[in-house]
Amino acid sequence: MKLSALGIVMGIVIGVGFLVSSPALADKAAVAIEAPENAAQGSEVTIRITVTHNANTTRHYVEWVKVWVNNQELGKWEYTSSNLPEGVPFTREVKFKVGANAEIKAEASCNAHGGKGPATFRITVK
């Protein structure tokens, strides 16, 4: 059986298209949270969010990053094709005054593939 050049090219295009669109291979944005595990009541802590994503180009970029403490939004950064994050990975920091035990949640989303879901971290008042 002889394959035509057109048939071979179409097979390659379909195969590559499947690989690129596969959710398992999609480049979803992800976050990691750094903060102290324990803090004194009334103290100010720095929460550092590291965002990972394969690239930030005008067609494929991190669209937003959000941080919540005890379900209250504490920080939000939005990006566009003309206002991209400065690099890959990149970090954002917010300060928070600890009043009681705190649950931090952070999430990022890619404009094309979404995000890997929220990350969480807990600070215990000592």
Write the layout of secondary structure elements.
Elements lengths: L4 H17 L8 E5 L3 E2 L4 E9 L9 E8 L2 E7 L11 E8 L4 E9 L8 E7 L1
Notes on the structure:
The protein has 126 residues and is mainly beta. The chain has one domain: SOR catalytic domain (Immunoglobulin-like, Sandwich). It is built from one helix and eight strands. The strands form two sheets. Strands 2-8-7-4-5 form a five-stranded mixed β-sheet, with no helix packed on it. A hairpin with an 8-residue loop joins strand 7 and strand 8. The protein is elongated, with a radius of gyration of 20 Å.
Q: What is the first-to-last residue Cα distance?
A: 75 Å
Report the strand count. Answer: 8
**Shape, please?**
elongated
Total domains, how many? 1
CATH superfamily: SOR catalytic domain
Number of helices: 1
Describe the strand arrangement of the main beta sheet, using strand numbers. 2-8-7-4-5
Strand coverage percent: 35-45%
Under CATH, the topology is which?
A: Immunoglobulin-like
